[in-house]
């Protein structure tokens, strides 16, 4: 078998790995290394565990937060958690309003490899009346120049849920109309 | 601290695996201290962030092995972006507790082994995989969310409060904030021109930074650190051995560590934990930390300052090597560390305090030299091989305090005049854990 081709640029090594799966690299000090491509893919079994009702709720068009059951606390979480961060008491599920306001936002022009094909996409932290914490979600039907802190937004749910946080997203409230489910 | 070493940080070191990179940094460190032989090192603390980047579990054991440290005690440290800073403090604790007389801290990362956007995915797995990652999991996106709110709180609601139209006010705030972030990028890249270990030394203009590719609005490519390969090591010893091993020992005067919620969405809206030089009235109407500030950074600073006996960091620190993974987080961190009040970070940049006095940045910096931040060039210009980064900061701060920058950089430009005390700051996640360590001239 032929010796792998030798390169002095890392980019060329990357290209050669795509072509043939192996390459030799020589650095500035004359040190040579054999480099091979090693594919790496897995299916991971992801359990939502105690967060399960939240994701089942999204598939039914409901947004569930959680509220502390401590009598002196009653902190309402927009991103649910099983036990209260403030006082440690068990929380109960509590339906959240389907409209809120943008606390902050961005438009991602790049992303992790898994999401590159979806760029550009907007992320927003959403505030809800009465809730003490926020919810991170995709913001759709708005471009970079239209988004602003304080913008009223309302929830939309995926008609074909995938049991993911992407089953819910928010869109700007148009003309102050009340949010509708689905 | 008695010695340290670093490899040059680079986009890729394919000819070296992580063991060889650490070995080179280790050999460099030991070459500085002839009396320090391997047999005198009692044990090690070894840091790297992600097993995904090595695709070799227990890589720290392989470093221990390669350095010939077996059967001495060792443990691997991982704490996200603050991995190197935590490793430094773990070694400090090993010596301070009396468990070891001499401890080696070594860190590395080999991020070039996967494509850049796959690397971003691996890093984004350090965000909640139920609620955050599936949305597009992207750290630059998270930092963009934070700085948009920071600009809203401190520029839109203050500097541009007079602008009646809400959207126009916010647009002006982001424009102004982006301009000021670019000053930080110019500073750090420019400093790095004099640091031969840096990955991206550059002479940039504010216009070039703003015109570079938009990654996540409003952050541009030149305002963000990149993937790197690299390693760094530090050797800590007790007082008697430190004085024996080097005529220029550096004292670890204080350490601090703070934490916050993993999810940005869960950050509280409470009160600011005050520095001795701040008053509650300064922040009467400020919901804190929200997503605009790093409570973990404030907590780490408070602990480290208290430990070191520092009342006012503005007067008692001579420089800071600060975890500027983003130009935005450098500005946010000025406030967390009490270099200026919350809300004054942008003006602090425009006054020039964190710039070096002897470098021409092409910008008006009247107060340059007041408290140089990232004289080495920081993460933005030096690179960020995560497990090595916090230790790299320690090595640069060490050489700075020893007065030996010229020896190591072959250029005296970045050497401050007789610095007495500096801080190193290491930061993880969206601010979910932060360390601050105070180093002081011990000779």
Q: Rg of chain B, please? A: 21 Å
The percent range for strand residues of chain A is: 25-35%
Spatial order of the strands forming the largest sheet of chain B: 1-7-4-2-3
Most extensive chain-chain interface? A-B, 55 and 51 residues
Number of helices of chain A: 2
Provide the structure class of chain A: mainly beta
Radius of gyration of chain A from CA coordinates? 24 Å
Annotation, overall tally of beta strands of chain A: 11
Distance between the termini of chain B: 12 Å
Shape of chain A: elongated
Query: Secondary-structure element order of chain B, as H and E?
Result: EHEHHEHEHHHHEEEHEEEHHEHHHHHEE
What CATH architecture label of the largest domain in chain B applies?
Answer: 3-Layer(aba) Sandwich
Average of the residue pLDDT scores of chain A: 93
Order of helices and strands of chain A: EHEEHEEEEEEEE
Number of strands of chain B: 13
Structural write-up:
- The complex is a heterodimer of chains A (182) and B (443).
- Chain A folds into two domains: 6-36, no CATH class; 49-172, no CATH class.
- Helix content of chain A is 10%, strand content 31%.
- Chain A has helices at 10-20, 52-59, and strands at 6-7, 22-26, 32-36, 64-68, 76-77, 91-95, 99-108, 121-127, 135-139, 152-157, 168-172.
- The longest helix of chain A has 11 residues, at 10-20.
- With 443 residues, chain B is α/β, with parallel strands linked by helices.
- Chain B is globular and about 70 Å long.
- The mean pLDDT of chain B is 97.
- The interface between A and B is large, with 55 and 51 residues.
Notable traits:
heterodimer; A: 182 residues; mainly beta; 2 domains; five-stranded mixed β-barrel; three-stranded mixed β-sheet; 2 helices; 11 strands; 31% strand; disordered C terminus; B: 443 residues; alpha/beta; Peroxisomal Thiolase, Chain A, domain 1; five-stranded mixed β-sheet; four-stranded mixed β-sheet; 16 helices; 13 strands; 39% helix; globular
């Amino acid at each position: 078998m032929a010796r792998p081709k030798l390169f002095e640029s890392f980019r060329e090594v990357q290209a050669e790995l795509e072509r043939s799966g192996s390459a030799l690299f020589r650095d500035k000090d004359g040190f040579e290394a054999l480099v091979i491509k090693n594919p790496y893919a897995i299916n991971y079994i992801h359990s939502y565990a105690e967060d399960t009702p939240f994701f089942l709720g999204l598939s039914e068009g409901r947004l569930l937060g959680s509220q502390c059951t401590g009598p002196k606390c009653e902190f309402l979480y927009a991103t649910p958690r099983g036990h209260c961060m403030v006082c440690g008491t068990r929380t109960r599920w509590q339906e959240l309003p389907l409209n809120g306001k943008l606390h902050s936002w961005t438009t991602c022009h790049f992303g992790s490899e898994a999401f590159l094909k979806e760029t550009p996409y907007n992320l927003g932290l959403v505030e809800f009346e009465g809730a003490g914490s926020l919810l991170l979600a995709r913001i759709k039907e708005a471009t970079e120049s239209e988004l602003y802190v304080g913008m009223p937004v309302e929830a939309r749910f995926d008609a074909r849920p995938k049991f993911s946080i992407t089953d819910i997203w928010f869109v700007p409230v148009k003309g102050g109309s009340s949010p509708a489910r689905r | 601290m008695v010695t340290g070493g670093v490899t040059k940080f680079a986009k890729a070191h394919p000819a070296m695996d992580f063991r060889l990179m650490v070995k080179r940094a280790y050999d460099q460190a030991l070459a500085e201290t002839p009396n320090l032989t391997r047999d005198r090192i009692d044990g090690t603390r070894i840091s790297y962030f992600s097993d995904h980047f090595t695709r070799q579990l227990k890589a720290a054991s392989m470093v221990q092995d390669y350095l010939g440290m077996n059967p001495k005690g060792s443990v691997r440290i991982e704490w996200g972006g603050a991995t190197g800073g935590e490793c430094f403090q773990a070694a400090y604790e090993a010596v301070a507790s009396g468990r070891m007389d001499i401890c080696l801290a070594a860190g590395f990362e080999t991020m070039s082994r996967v494509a850049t956007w796959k690397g971003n995915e691996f890093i984004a797995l350090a965000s909640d995989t139920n609620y955050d990652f599936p949305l597009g999991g992207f750290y630059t996106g998270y930092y963009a969310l934070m700085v948009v709110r920071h600009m809203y709180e401190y520029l839109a609601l203050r500097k541009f409060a007079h602008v009646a139209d809400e959207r126009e006010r916010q647009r002006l705030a982001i424009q102004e904030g982006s301009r000021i972030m670019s000053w930080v990028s110019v500073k750090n890249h420019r400093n790095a021109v004099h640091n031969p270990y840096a990955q991206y030394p550059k002479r940039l203009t504010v216009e070039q930074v703003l015109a570079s590719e938009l990654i996540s609005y409003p952050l541009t490519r030149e305002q963000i650190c990149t993937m790197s390969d690299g390693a760094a090591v530090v050797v800590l010893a007790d007082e008697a051995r430190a004085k024996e091993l080097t005529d220029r020992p550096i004292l670890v005067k204080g350490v601090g560590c703070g934490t916050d919620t993993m999810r940005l969405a869960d950050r509280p809206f409470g009160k600011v934990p005050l520095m001795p030089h701040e008053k509650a009235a300064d922040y009467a109407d400020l919901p804190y930390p929200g997503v605009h500030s790093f409570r973990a950074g404030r907590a780490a600073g408070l602990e480290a300052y208290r430990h070191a006996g520092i009342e006012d960091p503005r007067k008692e620190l001579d420089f800071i090597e600060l975890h500027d993974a983003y130009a935005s987080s450098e500005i946010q961190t000025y406030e967390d560390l009490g270099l200026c009040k919350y809300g004054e970070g942008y003006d602090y940049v425009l006054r020039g305090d964190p710039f070096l006095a002897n470098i021409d940045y092409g910008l008006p910096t009247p107060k340059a030299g007041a408290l140089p931040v990232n004289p080495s060039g920081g993460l933005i210009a030096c690179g960020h091989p995560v497990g090595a980064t916090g230790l790299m900061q320690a090595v640069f701060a060490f050489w700075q305090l020893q007065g030996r920058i010229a020896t190591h950089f072959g250029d005296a430009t970045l050497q401050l005049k007789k610095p007495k005390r500096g801080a190193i700051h290491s930061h993880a996640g969206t601010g979910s854990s932060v360390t601050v360590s105070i180093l002081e001239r011990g000779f």
